[in-house]
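Something for you to look into today, if you have time. What I am after is a single protein written out in full by you. I want to see for myself how the chain folds. Could you add the entry underneath, on a fresh line?
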Amino acid sequence: QVQLVESGGGLVQPGGSLRLSCAASGMILNIYSMGWYRQAPGKQRDLVATISSTDSTNYANSVKGRFTISGDNAKKTVYLQMNSLKPNDTAVYYCYLDAVSSKQVGGASEISRGETWGQGTQVTVSS
């Protein structure tokens, strides 16, 4: 079973920096993309940044120029460097994986493409 483990969240003052990490484990055969979404209290979950297997990146307008996403396919890990943090960056940040994986079903291997989400890591920007 594919799992994502996030780390690096915490409390930081406005203007500060944090680096989030997300490591994937399990029988992952091919990664299409990884990324980060965030959800502030009372709001929907929104895209922050994604990176494809060809290192093509996509950012929300609100974080362009401040956040940088990077990945290591060999380690199945994605990072989010967050600089110049603002109070409205406060949210739970969720790691995301779009990949083909294999799992055992009734003694046979089942290969499928699917999405996996991490449990989330809290980022709070406050003085």
